[in-house]
């Protein structure tokens, strides 16, 4: 079911063109479903994050599990200058925060427009 849902969202998003897609994917970047549907997208944390970037922490008895299952993905001219995991805000997952900018056709760095997601 998750593979089909992920595929449907990826196809619909790709039809939109230049897009930013962010949220709880409930899968790490090394999962087979992520690799199948999302590996051609640029991942903010993979490209500009530092460390593991774990967004979920689960305590199972004496063991603790952590993973990065929340992502900021983008296509087209979007670029990420930095990406980090925010503090615990009371949700099951910690937020992923990214500084994104849209590259224009001009060469000058003054021609970049910046947006924080």
Class in CATH?
A: Alpha Beta
> What percent strand?
35-45%
- The low-confidence runs, each spanning 5 or more residues with pLDDT under 50, are none
CATH superfamily: Endonuclease/exonuclease/phosphatase
Question: Do you know the CATH topology?
Answer: Deoxyribonuclease I, Chain A
Assigned CATH architecture: 4-Layer Sandwich
Q: Compute the average pLDDT.
A: 90
Widest sheet: strand order? Answer: 1-5-2
Largest sheet entry? 3 strands, antiparallel
Please compute the radius of gyration using only Cα atoms: 15 Å
**What is the β-strand count?**
8
Number of domain modules = 1
Helix-strand category: alpha+beta
- The separation of the N and C termini measures 29 Å
Key descriptive features of the protein:
alpha+beta; single chain; Deoxyribonuclease I, Chain A; 3 helices; globular; 3-stranded antiparallel β-sheet; 117 residues
Please characterize this protein's 3D structure.
The chain has helices spanning 2-14, 32-38, 44-48; strands at 20-24, 42-43, 56-60, 63-67, 70-74, 78-85, 96-102, 113-116. The chain has 117 residues and is an alpha+beta fold. It has a single domain (2-116), classed as Endonuclease/exonuclease/phosphatase (Deoxyribonuclease I, Chain A, 4-Layer Sandwich), CATH 3.60.10.10. The chain has a three-stranded antiparallel sheet. The chain has a three-stranded antiparallel sheet with strand order 6-7-8. Helix 1 (2-14) runs parallel beside helix 2. The chain starts with a helix and ends with a strand. The model has no long low-confidence stretch (mean pLDDT 90).
């Amino acid at each position: 079911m998750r593979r089909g849902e992920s595929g449907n969202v990826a196809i619909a998003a790709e039809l939109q063109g230049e897009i930013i897609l962010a949220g709880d994917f409930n899968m790490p970047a090394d999962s087979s479903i992520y690799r199948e549907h999302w590996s051609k997208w640029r991942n903010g944390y993979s490209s500009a994050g530092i460390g593991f970037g774990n967004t979920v922490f689960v305590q199972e008895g004496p063991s603790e599990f952590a993973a990065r299952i929340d992502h900021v993905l983008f296509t087209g001219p979007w670029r990420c200058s930095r990406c980090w995991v925010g503090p615990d805000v009371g949700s099951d997952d910690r937020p992923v925060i990214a500084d994104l900018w849209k590259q224009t056709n001009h060469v000058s760095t003054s021609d970049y427009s910046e947006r924080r997601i």
